[in-house]
Amino acid sequence: MTWTQSLPGLAVLAAGLTLAPAANGPLVQPMATSAAAEQAVFDYWTPSRIAALTEPSSGKPPKSGADGAPWTSANAAQQTVGRLFYTDHGEDASCTATVVDSANRSTIVTAAHCVNNTDLIGEHNAWNAHLMFVPGYHDGQAPYGKFAVRYSVADATWLKNDQQGGQFNTYDQAFAVLGTNSGGKRVQDAVGAAQRIGFDLPADAEVTQFGYPRASDDPAREGLPEYTGERLAYCTGQARHLTGTKESPDQWGTACVMGGGSSGGPRLRDFDPKTGLGTVIGDNSHSGLLSATGIPCEDEKTDGCTRYLAGPQFSRAVTEPLYEAAQKQS
After folding, report:
1. 8 within 8 A of 213, measured Cβ to Cβ
2. What fold is seen in the domain 26-327?
3. What does DSSP say about strands 91-99 and 147-155: parallel, antiparallel, or unpaired?
4. Measured between alpha carbons, how far apart are the two ends of the chain, in Å?
5. Residue 75 carries which DSSP code?
6. Which UniProt keywords apply (predicted)?
7. What is the pLDDT of residues 233-260, one digit of tens each?
8. Entry pTM
9. 284-304: buried (b, 16+ CB within 10 Å) or exposed (e) per residue?
10. What is the phi-psi region of residue 317: left when phi exceeds 0, alpha when psi lies from -120 to 50, beta otherwise?
11. Which helix (H) or strand (E) holds 320?
């Protein structure tokens, strides 16, 4: 199986003090917890910095399919999914995150490598800096405002991640708690919607996965507007079990050509395309190759091999404690 521990272009600098890992369970890392720190995040993300994370348009003719297409419906999917900007080990980057229903009305879910990561050789674990979430982002616009991250929440086991193999894939999930936008609104109130979240739900289901990819695995779609980071894209289809790593047997996803930037995006089941609402049961973390019969492939060029965008299935054992820890922050 060919695996990518985190999607290309998504891994990053950290700010703040790295906590000493506990045995397991949630770690809550304070980020921009003061008004001055929040303003510093907003000041950091100038239009030119954000534009630098936009890939050039190719001018190619549109091409869409279940394995990747632009999301064009103005509903809750467009409201709740957004771009998460951050700095990782000195490099600016972006992921995808989703507003989930929470007691504090300020919680988003994403991938753990979008809030905490090692350097490219798997060392120097640190919390990512300058985290800012923009729900409904499109073409440089922030229709619901911008939100600085006050707290990042990841499992202590994730901090042991060395980017070697797939043994940490189960823990590539995280939550963040946001401050308010410039109008003083919490994110769930600002966007007027939130996705449900589910734990230990059946993974073998029709799913829809969203992201803000800055690349496509399909050369014919590389550089289309929905693969430059500027617009929301999605994939939909039957989730399949990616069995390539014995250490992380909970990896699921559907056929999808979304690349770097889509990490942290939601995998939803029971999704209603009319309302844009569903239940988040996992996040985009890495890619893998499967044959038509579900056998891991070594090479994408092999006949019958398909690329899947996969990630952990949310569980009561790992995900729920992170979610509960996030909900308690304000």
Report:
1. no
2. Thrombin, subunit H (2.40.10)
3. unpaired
4. 42
5. S
6. Signal
7. 999 999 999 876 666 789 999 999 999 9
8. 0.91
9. bbbbbbbeeeeebbeeeeeee
10. alpha
11. helix 319-327
Contact 21, 27 (CB under 8 A): yes
DSSP 77: H
pLDDT digits (tens, 9 = 90+) for 39-80: 999 999 999 999 999 999 999 999 999 999 999 999 999 999
C-alpha span between 239 and 72 (Å, rounded):
23
CB atoms within 10 A of CB 205: 17
The answer to whether residues 172 and 245 touch, using CB atoms and an 8 Å cutoff, is no
- Cite the beta strand spans of the chain per DSSP E: 26-30, 69-70, 81-88, 91-99, 107-110, 116-117, 126-127, 129-135, 147-155, 174-178, 196-197, 206-211, 233-238, 240-241, 251-255, 266-272, 277-283, 286-290, 306-312
Q: What tokens does 284 get?
A: 């985009």
CA atoms within 13 Å, Cβ hemisphere of 102: 28
DSSP 18-52: PPPP-SSSEEEEE-S-SHHHHHHHHHHS-HHHHHT
Domain map of the chain by residue range? 26-327
CA distance 244 to 289: 9
The secondary structure of 209-231 as a DSSP string is: EEE--S-BSSTTTTTSGGGTTSS
Do residues 63 and 216 lie in contact, with contact meaning Cβ atoms separated by under 8 Å? no
Nearest by Cα to 264 from 243, 285, 233, 241: 285
Q: Which amino acid is at 63?
A: K
Identify the bridge partners of residue 301 per DSSP, sorted by sequence position: none
Please, which residues bridge with residue 88 across strands?
91
In angstroms, the CA 146 to CA 272 distance is: 27
CA 98 to the chain's CA centroid: 8
Q: What DSSP character marks residue 324?
A: H
Cα separation, 83 vs 263, whole angstroms? 10
Question: Alpha helices, DSSP H only, in 54-207?
Answer: 76-80, 187-191
Average pLDDT over residues 147-165: 91
Instruction: Return d(Cα 209, Cα 253) in angstroms, integer.
Output: 8
